[in-house]
Amino acid sequence: MEDCIFCKIIRNEIPSTTVYEDDYVKAFLDISQVTPGHTLMVPKVHVADIFEYDEKLAAEIFARIPIIAKAIKASDPKIAGMNIINNNGALAYQSVFHSHIHFIPRYTKDDDFAIRFGDHTDQYTPAQLQTIADNIKANLEV
């Protein structure tokens, strides 16, 4: 196991407020609490990001997402929605390089959290989209 902050939390060397733990994951409240109930779920094995997952690890980790999400939603009747986010790489806003999934409960539109998706529909022709899709398909490992 590595020496990152999440590995230390998994080993209980750094205190955390745990909401779920099993052989594969630990889920705990994010210290920043972007919104009340903001939870992080981390694999117990150190992997930097999604690109280091194999199929077995992915199956185990991602199977726990609905379990955690449903528990968070059930914990507060004011929760109207939830963002579930996994950032991979510094450019994608990953700040701790131990894979983790954010569960961010949403209460109102004005809850100090936002995601912006740019609309570039008019910038791609069907042929350009097909080229992008073909390049992705050529790199699938199934």
Strands, helices and their partners?
Elements: H1 5-10, E1 18-21, E2 25-29, E3 39-43, H2 55-63, H3 65-74, E4 81-85, E5 101-106, H4 126-137
Antiparallel strand pairs: 1-2, 2-3, 3-5, 4-5
Structure description:
The protein has a 5-stranded antiparallel β-sheet with strand order 1-2-3-5-4, with helices on one face. By secondary structure, the protein is of the alpha+beta class. Helix content is 26%, strand content 18%. It starts with a helix and ends in a 5-residue tail after the last helix. It has a single domain, classed as HIT-like (HIT family, subunit A). Pfam families: HIT. One of its GO terms (molecular function) is methyltransferase activity. This is HIT family protein.
Helix-strand sequence? HEEEHHEEH
Number of strands: 5
Going by CATH, the homologous superfamily would be: HIT-like
The pLDDT mean sits at 96
The CATH topology is: HIT family, subunit A
Query: How far from one another are the termini?
Result: 29 Å
Which structural category do the helix and sheet elements fall into? alpha+beta
Gyration radius from CA atoms, angstroms: 17 Å
**What count of structural domains?**
1
GO biological process, one term: methylation
InterPro entries: HINT, Histidine_triad_CS, Histidine_triad_HIT, HIT-like, HIT-like_sf
Organism: Agrilactobacillus yilanensis
EC number: 2.1.1.-
Compact description:
The protein is an alpha+beta fold and about 140 residues long.
Comma- or semicolon-separated keywords:
142 residues, five-stranded antiparallel beta sheet, HIT family, subunit A, alpha+beta, EC 2.1.1.-, single chain, Histidine_triad_HIT
